[in-house]
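--- STAGE predict ---
source: upstream dedup step, 1 unique chain passed
mode: sequence only
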Amino acid sequence: MQYCEKRAWLGLLGRAMLFIAGFVLIFGAAHAEAAFAERAGSMSEIKAVRVSNSADKTRIVLDGTKETSYKVSVLSNPQRIVVDIQNAWLSPDVKKSTTIDSRFAKAVRIAQHDTSTVRVVVESSVGKNNYKVFPLKGGSTAYRIVLDFGNLGGSSGGAAIDFNPKPKEESAGSTGGSSGTATTGTAAEKDNGTDGSTDVVVKGEPVFTPGLKGKIIALDAGHGGSDVGAIGPTGVTEKGVTLRVALELQKKLIAEGASVIMTRTTDTEVSPKKAKASDIEELQARCDAGNDKNADIFVSLHMDSFTNSSPSGTTGYYYVNGSKAGRRLAKELSEALVAELGTGNRGTKSCNFYVVKHTTMPAALIEMAFISNDKEERLMNSEAGVKKAAEGLLKGIRSFFG
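--- STAGE serialize ---
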């Protein structure tokens, strides 16, 4: 074959191959698109991401067309809450990134992670008790996944797990009423029955010699580590306030000759399992710190919180089936704290809170002030406020021992 003829033949062959390849690509793409469309029909389409902010929380809502499952995980450095929505695809109309003007969350991003997973990433540094993810069905949208960040439950968080029906509250001169009291944990932290353990009941009333010298006092700075507790309007955390007050009180008690057992002295969990501990394991570790050392009294420090900034004041809690000494301890502490801080007296109330229920000595849980109240947040975040709180608690302990 002559050179020209050979070249022409090769040209025709090349064009034919290109035509065939193009046909295959078009057919393949059409087939893939049809296959995806068929598969997408059985998947949930994520059609919108909606963000709303309030004084106590940030809410992110993901609107879907079908019920589906999801997995929640946490990434660190920086901390991010990740929700992988299974068997779902992301509508091209959805905004992929949104900046959030909130102290609870900084931004939310959403993307198609793989062919059947939509990944949502929220930049948030809140603790494990300050976010929750849950589904909603029905209404104008077939299926929604809700992500809440902020002050979601009782201010005492895990310490306020109420395992039994709520007892009738007893009040001693309460001026704040009950409308602003947030004393129980989130719904996920409750149990309809008991926690499976035996109640610790103090047998008889303890008798103490006067004065603080030689007394063993257990101080529990509420929350810590991955559990930040309640969060104030400017971002002040309950775990930070309680630790500062506990450390200041520790110094004052030691100066008067008492031995002090601290459940924590840094920003950490108390259980050896740290962030992996269950709520009960963490709470029991706090109780064990006092029980194992035969402490004379156990004082758990917290900050109260509510869904608006109006409620204020100080409340003392004691175990409903505990000793009279526990009730007296809560009363002495709360009244002395009110006198020193100038907060309103919300009274002394009975409770089933874990850390006062499972300690073997007179125990009290003190909600020092409302972190959700602008004025009280500023007070308890100041050096002067921390010193006043410690001084008030010291006076209350002095008065208890007589």
